[in-house]
């Protein structure tokens, strides 16, 4: 009987120990779960902040890339305009020389003169295709388009009397001013 009581006492204490152990394990699991949930929430919060930062960096990088592309395109267009302007200015010397050759030939219509006229016409047509046109000298003196180099006594006041050298514009911008003599 004493053995039975001892066994029962041992069974009771092992049952209590098992219950206590289960209780501690449940509390540990709850603590771990609570701690895990809090850690996970903190980690999620940290990751969300990191994601916001990375999204902002990405948006900024995209913006900078777009601005760089736009700047490069503007610079490219400006460079094209500059190159076309230089090229057109050089061709204007050839136009002037062909016009002088036609004036020097006088009134004699020769095949050579006809060839020079056709060459000049072809060159002017090509220049017009690229936006190079003769500056207007018919509508009076305009300081934006003309350069007065002398006074023409036969011309009316503020009117162009003699055109010494034709002026040209490129896409609406002055390429070379016309050298003119103006009346007083």
Overall description:
The chain is α+β, with helices and mostly antiparallel strands and 184 residues long. It folds into 2 domains: 2-130; 132-184, Nucleotide Exchange Factor Grpe, Chain A, domain 2 (Roll), CATH 2.30.22.10. The chain is 67% helix and 15% strand. The chain contains 2 helices and 6 strands; from the N terminus they run ααββββββ. Helix 1 (2-105) runs antiparallel to helix 2 (111-129). The longest helix has 104 residues, at 2-105. The protein is rod-shaped. The termini are far apart.
In short:
The chain is of the alpha+beta class and about 180 residues long. The chain is built from two helices and six strands. The radius of gyration is 47 Å and the shape is rod-shaped.
Helices and strands, with pairings:
Layout: H1 2-105, H2 111-129, E1 132-134, E2 146-151, E3 160-165, E4 168-170, E5 173-176, E6 178-182
Parallel strand pairs: 2-6
Antiparallel strand pairs: 1-4, 3-6, 4-5
Helix pairs in contact: 1-2
């Amino acid at each position: 009987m004493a053995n039975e009581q001892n066994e029962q006492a041992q069974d009771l204490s092992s049952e209590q120990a098992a219950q206590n152990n289960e209780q501690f394990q449940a509390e540990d699991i709850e603590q771990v779960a609570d701690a895990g949930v809090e850690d996970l929430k903190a980690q999620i919060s940290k990751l969300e902040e990191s994601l916001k930062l990375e999204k902002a960096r990405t948006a900024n990088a995209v913006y900078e890339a777009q601005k760089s592309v736009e700047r490069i395109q503007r610079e490219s267009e400006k460079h094209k305009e500059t190159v076309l302007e230089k090229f057109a200015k050089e061709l204007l010397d050839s136009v002037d020389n062909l016009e002088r050759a036609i004036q020097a030939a006088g009134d004699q219509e020769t095949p050579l003169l006809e060839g020079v006229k056709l060459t000049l016409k072809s060159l002017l047509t090509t220049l017009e295709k690229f936006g190079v046109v003769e500056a207007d000298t018919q509508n009076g003196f305009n300081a934006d388009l003309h350069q007065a180099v002398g006074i023409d006594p036969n011309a009316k006041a503020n009117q162009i009397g003699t055109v010494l050298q034709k002026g040209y514009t490129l896409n609406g911008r002055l390429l070379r001013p016309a050298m003119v003599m103006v009346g007083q």
